[in-house]
Structures are given as structure tokens and as C-alpha cells.
Amino acid sequence: MTNRTLAQLTLCLALALAGCNHPESDWSEVETPKQLHVDFVRLHYTATFAAGSAELAPGEADRLASFLETAQVRPDDRVFFEGAPNDALAGSRIGTLTREVTRRGIAATTLPPGTMPSDQMMVSVERYVVSPPDCPNWTSPIYGDHSNRMNSNFGCATASNLSLMVADPRDLVIGRDLGPDDAQPSGAAVDRYRTGTVKKLSATGGFSAGGASSGGGQ
Fold first, then answer.
1. Is residue 97 part of a domain?
2. How far apart are the C-alpha atoms of 18 and 13, rounded to whole Å?
3. Is this prediction's pTM over 0.70?
């Protein structure tokens, strides 16, 4: 084998090996964890009332409905009403707006008067929006990597599925307080287990009264 032939084979082998590797700029040794991004969004609409009246101005009901439709306001969104200071018709006007949003299954909360002009009331919508991570991510080699580093696509499916399944993205940030609970039924069940008076299933599939079976035995 001549030196020229050997040089050509070496060059071909080097090019082949280079084509199997991903550029280092495409991925990092420690890939960014696949985390969800939750953003707080606040939308505003100014509802105008007829001067000296609790009725909406002409065409205002349609504009309000268009705002609610465009913003895709859902029952789990937080909606607030904020009126003008010293508005003698505030209660009646709030009732008018309440009727408009209630027909869409939306509940609203009234805030203290702010700086709104006379004959106007602010309708605010607050919500949390979740965005999935940038997936899939196949920038790292899927095989032949002997560095024992985590694959760039690891966690993509879990994070993406959670972003699609969560009913209220706010739960990912704040969560909810536990409601009242009664521990007595659970405690009574433990006592019955310890004392050997466990309730047996009746023939109909329910619990028999007084801890006895339908046949009258224990």
C-alpha cells in the first residue's frame, strides 16, 4: 500500500467519524431540566353605562360578550369588577354585569372602588397559563454515548403530558387549601378493626346494620 493510498484511507475514515458526531454547540453536557413555564395573565375591559343609568350603553353588551368570547374566559378564571368612586349606582351596575357573565357560567368578585371614570366599570380577568418545555429534544446522541450523561429528551413526555392534563395551571404555582375533613368515620373503622367488629357486606352489597351480617351472625 502506497503512502498516497494510506493517506486517502485515513482521510476517508476521519470524515466518516466526523459525520457520526453531533456538533458540540447543539447540546450541553448538562441538559436543562424539562420544566413547565407558568405565567400570570391579566386582561381588562372597560364597560360603559348609559349616563345616570344602571343599564349598559347601546351596543356595550355585545362588546362585552365579544371580549369574553375572544379572551376565552372560563368558569375557573378569576373575574373582578371595579367601579368608580362615589358611584351611587354601583350596586345596580354590578348586578347588570353579573347577569352578563353568569349566563356564561362565570362568577365574579367585586373590588373596592378604584380610579375609574364616572359611568364606567372595569372588568378584569386573571388566569395562569402553562407552557410546555421545548420538546422533543434530540440534540444529544441517542446511542454510542459512553459518558453516562442524561439524554437531552429525558422528561419531555412527562412534562408535556402534565401541561395538557392540569385543569387549573394555578395549582402548579400555589395549590389549593384542603377543605374541612371529618376523621371520625376513619377512626371508627380502625376501632372496629381492632375490636373485631368489622362490618360485613350484606347480600345486596351494602353494609349490614349494627355490624351484623344479613344472617344475624358476626
1. yes
2. 9
3. no
